[in-house]
TrEMBL record:
It is an enzyme of class 3 (hydrolase). It comes from Caenorhabditis japonica. Its EC number is 3.4.22.49. GO terms for molecular function: cysteine-type endopeptidase activity. Residues 940-1034 form the Peptidase C50 domain. InterPro entries: Peptidase_C50, SEPARIN_core_dom. Keywords: Chromosome partition, Hydrolase. The keyword Zinc-finger does not apply. One of its GO terms (cellular component) is cytoplasm. This is separase. GO terms for biological process: meiotic chromosome separation; proteolysis. It catalyses: All bonds known to be hydrolyzed by this endopeptidase have arginine in P1 and an acidic residue in P4. P6 is often occupied by an acidic residue or by a hydroxy-amino-acid residue, the phosphorylation of which enhances cleavage.
Length: 1133
């Protein structure tokens, strides 16, 4: 007889526990997928309502995106999803309790139990909780070690989070499959690159070799695309190291190009798995639902859940990093494009976390950018993200004020105004309320359970608090709590007592906030107190755990900290801040303050030892990281060097290197490589060689904005060391541009709204504005520049007697003047009276110290300088050439002003602009290598034109057609041109003309221009065609000029502001005839009429000499007409 016990077997209890957990997890994740799919379908319908099936997604579509966000926040499905994080957290905790038993079960049982970590892994990947997802992924790999794809995913994610120590241990225990050989080799190489500095050169070659092999094979399978994305991502961080002796000659993969490829491969995988979530899938009818992949025709397997979760998370992380690195490298246009697409796919995913993440980055970027419209975008995104984070709290307030984010369906343009009102009325402290267990809002439910959400929430709080001191102090304290919560899950990855390093994404968010907080403290002149020092040190300590990943933030925070602690700001007597209201005409800067402030004001006290120590550290950074161009660092450290270092070559080099950051990064993106000297000037010595190699008839003058926003003038000539002078406080420059823009707006109003004005009245009113503009330009020279305006004159070599005198003056000044300044002053004496010359000398002396009696000698020195110059001219028995060229490199903030029309240039018409110092030096070197001489010779018969591509010039184009037919140019009238035809026009013709509205970018893609080999001089005859719109400190601004500069266009002619079509075309015809027709039969290049001369003459003959004449400028090198070939007859005539 068998006796049956009533006691259950212990193994049966365990089996039941697992069975219950398997069922709970499957039901929970199944219902989560169903709700997400329903929400995705709901969002997809709204997208079609807002955009149509194929509607454009661009900056103008942000109001529509905000409406979709609002409707998403109000959706019932989203409310039902609120409790899932807490439920899944309980199941995760239960699994961790049973995990040890599961690992000791049989192989068949492990196969059944693997669904638990697999589906939990999917849930956490989809919601952006990467640490928990990887804990579950590692558990799955331990249960199913033969799942090669899951093992590869684990390797990728551990590397992504910077868990290299753990990854090395895991790779010793995991089995490597033959198909995964390249991934293992690449991972080992990347870990070695991080840990072993001495062998980085060899490791770099190995990793790049693996990347190139994958490219060459071009195998189009999911695993190969995942491998390609992963390897390109690892290559993107290779350049983030100091160039020491082992790497000084190394060529790194460019960060932008590698991330672009990593993102593109991830997008390709997404396009094939969930097409609607692909970034560049613009068909809104394409499904973005995850349901068909997981639970469509059949229930999804554990592998399906892991693969999809990992794929979606990797796609979002690559897209996020791509967007942020675009900001870091000053790619304004690409940054906005990437962020809008990221927000779009986040909405289509219906993932609450991903939408908040995308909205935060978009808002962050909108706060940085200062171009017109960015403030409205910022307010729009702020209100939208607030509505998303605290939907319940805001919704009732919105209804009362009738400013709901369900804005007026009939008028998209009302969106901005309504959001403006909303954002000003919202109580930030109420919305960002304390986290409590009793509150049922999204934030309070997710904040305690998700460290990634908590970091994004604190990011949003800092953004909405404008990165204030209080918000950063709160984030600094809260970061410790967030990290402690996250460490519990990081510890579950390690399964040991080691203290894990901070989470990479959270550290990155804290670094972004720290940078903006430091910038605001510096701009406000706030002190570097103990609380600030604590935040600063904590940020550096956190970032250093992932140095190769976050070197851009480390360098930026270091320099901002220096600038905050040792600002070394000096407001000289001529550059005091403007504190009074201005009238419509006139600019009062220099004259008033010269009388009000003592000539030699107090200097800030800086201990010499501290200053030398700072400069030593700065030199080390500059030399070690000169190959990388990160905006927040380079736009701060190099101007700081420029205004504080005493060596003129070092300072001038730094001023040059502080500019053109975005465009040089774009060049590296195209070349896909990065090394010292590729797009940077490799050092002060090389910079000196470039300047001394300039033709002696060429003078380069740079207007630069410093890290403290003061305006500096840097003058370069082959005969002497650079001359550097601060010329204006930022408020003075801002006042200048405000008044200037006011006059342009006034004229544009007359032109755009003539009403019933007669032609006589129309021209009278415009002539009146033109006269005011002429007066204003004169006042800018007198009051804004003052006596420093004379530094804009082209320089020349000094004779021996003048040279000796310059050395004597510098010696007697006892440190008040440097030798290069003394040389320039001696040369300028011939153009200045004794009084003005004395003021200019004393400006230089005020920047340092000088002997008290030195000013008494200045009248005598001026007289002696005139005699010395005269004697040198007599000794050479040669009249100096009057063809001296002045090239202006102007920062975006001042670029629209008509510097060429300053009275100082009346006797020196050869004034031209350069897009950047780097492009100028590069083209000069190319001309020397090709043995080509300046001025360039242009055959105006060999030209191509585009006319009226928008079909809106009507009868205005008839005079142009007659003119074009005179030259028999080839070209196209109306319609969009063929890209191949346009590339040929830029490369094979001598001249390219664009006649239409705006710049040629409206009909020619920027990528076409950038990638062309532009040999043709380009004349862009449209209103504002070469206008540069300033974006923010460190950005190049928005302008088609940058595209033509990348294509190495030798000369660009265009308009700084809008000019009426008839005036513009008359100006052009007069200028072209004067330069290319009247002198084309003249023998001898020196006798040919230059385009700069013809432009100067055309300005003088324009009906409106300033509103029209000053608008047209040129960027590039001097050109003349190519002479007609001379045929010699039998008599030699």
């Amino acid at each position: 007889m068998r006796i049956f016990s009533n006691r259950r077997n212990k193994d049966d209890d365990v089996a039941d526990e697992f069975q219950d957990l398997v069922q709970d997890v499957c039901v929970t994740v199944y219902s989560f997928v169903k709700l997400i799919s329903d929400l995705q379908e709901y969002v997809a319908k709204i997208f079609i309502e807002e955009y149509g099936v194929h509607g454009p997604i661009d900056l103008n579509s942000l109001p529509k995106m905000a409406r979709i966000m609002s409707k998403y926040a109000a959706a019932d499905s989203l409310r039902k999803l609120r409790n899932y994080p807490k439920s899944v957290q309980k199941q995760f905790n239960t699994w961790q309790c049973l995990r040890k038993k599961a690992m000791s079960s049989s192989k068949s049982e492990k196969l059944k139990l693997a669904v638990i970590p697999a589906k939990l892994c999917f849930f956490y990947f989809y919601n952006g909780e990467l640490c928990k997802a990887i804990v579950c992924l590692l558990d799955y790999v331990k249960l199913i070690p033969d799942d090669i794809l899951a093992t590869e995913a684990a390797i990728r994610w551990l590397m992504f989070l910077g868990e290299t120590e753990l990854l090395k241990r895991k790779m010793k225990t995991w089995n490597m499959d033959n198909d995964s050989r390249e991934l293992w080799k690449a991972t080992r190489a990347a870990i070695s690159y991080i840990e072993s500095k001495d062998t980085r050169g060899e490791t770099l070659e190995k990793l790049v070799g693996i990347r190139d092999k994958i490219r060459k094979e071009n195998i189009k399978t999911f695993p190969k695309f995942e491998l390609s994305s992963y390897v390109h991502w690892m290559c993107s961080t290779m350049c983030n190291v100091s160039v020491n002796s082992n790497l000084v000659a190394s060529e790194f993969p460019d960060r932008l190009s590698q991330l672009q490829e990593a993102s593109a491969k991830a997008d390709s995988i997404m396009r094939n798995r969930i097409p609607g979530l692909a970034a560049y899938q613009f068909d809104n009818s394409t499904s973005s639902s995850i349901w068909p992949f997981l639970e469509g025709n059949r229930p999804g397997s554990a592998t399906d859940y892991i693969n999809l979760g990992s794929t979606i998370a990797w796609h979002f992380e690559m897209r996020r990093e791509w967007a942020l690195v675009n900001v870091t490298t000053a790619q304004g246009r690409s940054s906005m494009c990437a962020m809008i697409l990221n927000l779009r796919i986040a909405l289509k995913s219906a993932s609450f976390f991903r939408i908040i993440q995308a909205a935060n980055i978009m808002t962050y970027f909108s706060m940085i950018i200062e171009e017109p419209g960015s403030e409205d975008n910022m307010k729009l995104m702020k209100a939208s993200s607030l509505n998303l984070i605290s939907a319940d709290s805001i919704k009732s307030e919105i209804r009362e004020q009738k400013t709901s984010a369900h804005f007026d369906e009939e008028d998209d343009m009302t969106m901005i105004q309504q959001v403006d009102n909303l954002s000003s009325d919202l109580d930030i402290d109420h919305l960002f309320h304390p986290i409590t267990h009793s509150c049922g809002c999204n934030v309070c439910l997710q904040y305690p359970t998700s460290s990634t959400f908590a970091a994004e929430y604190m990011f949003a709080y800092c953004i909405h608090s404008d990165f204030s001191q209080n918000s950063m102090e709160h984030f600094n304290k809260e970061f410790v709590c967030i990290r402690e919560r996250d460490m519990r899950f990081q510890a579950l990855m390690h399964r040991d007592d080691l203290r894990p390093r901070p989470n990479a994404i959270q550290s990155e968010i804290f670094g972004l906030c720290t940078i903006q907080w430091l910038i605001r403290k510096i701009d406000a002149g706030e002190p570097f107190d103990n609380a600030s020092r604590d935040i600063y040190k904590n940020s550096l300590r956190i970032a250093k755990y992932l140095q190769t990943r976050m070197i851009d933030q480390i360098l930026a925070v270091k320099q901002l900290g220096r600038q905050l602690e040792y600002p070394q700001n000096v407001n000289y007597s001529w550059m005091q801040p403007v504190r009074k209201n201005w009238t419509k005409l006139g600019i009062d800067c220099d004259a008033d303050f010269f009388r009000a402030v003592p000539q030699f004001g107090p200097k800030p006290i800086v201990h010499q030892d501290d200053l030398e120590a700072i400069q030593t550290r700065i030199r080390e950074e500059m030399n070690e990281y000169t190959h990388i161009l990160y905006r927040d660092w380079r736009s701060r450290i190099f101007p700081y060097i420029g205004r504080t270092f005493t060596c003129p070559w070092e300072a001038a080099y730094a001023w040059a290197e502080s500019t053109f950051i975005g465009s040089r990064n774009a060049v590296q993106l195209r070349l896909e490589r990065c090394h010292k000297g590729l797009v940077t000037i490799s050092g002060p010595d090389h910079f000196r060689n470039c300047v001394e190699a300039m033709p002696t008839d060429m003078t380069l003058v740079q207007f630069a904005m410093a890290d403290n926003k003061h305006i500096y003038l840097i003058k370069l000539h082959a005969d002497r060391e650079p001359i550097i002078m601060p010329i204006a406080h930022y408020s003075q420059a801002s006042e200048l541009m405000d008044k200037f823009t006011h006059l342009l707006d006034e004229d544009e109003l007359i032109c755009s709204c003539p009403g019933n004005m007669s032609a006589t009245m129309f021209w009278e009113r415009r002539r009146f504005v033109d006269a005011r503009l002429a007066s204003f330009v004169g006042e800018v020279e007198k009051n804004f520049l003052g006596v420093s305006a004379h530094l804009l004159r082209p320089s020349d070599r000094l004779g021996p007697e003048s040279d000796i005198l310059a050395e004597k003056i510098a010696r007697i000044s006892k440190g008040g003047l440097r030798i290069e300044e003394s040389k320039e002053l001696v040369y300028l004496a011939q153009f200045m009276n004794a009084s003005s010359w004395r003021k200019l000398v004393l400006r230089f002396c005020e920047m340092r110290t000088t002997d008290a009696v030195f000013p008494d000698y200045l009248p005598t020195f001026h007289s002696v300088a005139l005699d010395a110059l005269k004697n040198d001219r007599t000794a050479t028995a040669q009249e100096p050439s009057n063809k001296k060229y002045t090239y202006l490199v102007v920062c975006p903030q001042l670029s629209q002003f008509c510097w060429e029309r300053l009275p100082i240039f009346n006797d020196f018409p050869y004034v031209c602009r350069q897009v950047s110092i780097h492009s100028m030096f590069s083209q000069l070197e190319a001309l020397r290598n090709q043995e080509r001489q300046l001025p360039l010779q242009i055959d105006m018969k060999n030209a191509y034109y585009l006319l009226d591509q928008g079909n809106n010039l009507c009868e205005k184009k008839n005079p142009l057609l007659d003119y074009i037919n005179k030259f028999k140019w080839e070209g196209k009238i109306g319609g969009e041109p063929d890209s191949t035809e346009m590339a040929t026009a830029l490369e094979e013709y001598d001249a390219f003309f664009y006649f239409g509205h705006g710049s040629s970018s409206s009909v020619m893609p920027t990528s076409l221009i950038k990638n062309a080999k532009c040999n043709a001089i380009s004349l862009l005859m449209g209103g504002g065609s070469v206008k540069t719109i300033p974006q923010a400190h460190g950005f190049d601004g928005k302008s088609v000029l940058l595209d033509y500069a990348m294509a190495k266009c030798p000369l660009i002619v265009g308009c700084l502001w809008t000019v009426t079509d008839g005036e513009l075309y008359r100006f052009l015809m007069r200028m072209i005839d004067d330069c290319f027709e009247k002198t084309r039969n003249v023998i001898g290049v020196d006798k040919l009429r230059q385009l700069a001369e013809a432009m100067h003459e055309a300005r003088s003959n324009a009906r409106l000499k300033y509103l029209t004449g000053a608008a047209i400028v040129m960027y590039g090198f001097p050109v003349v007409s190519k002479p007609v070939p001379v045929v010699v007859d039998e008599r030699g005539e």
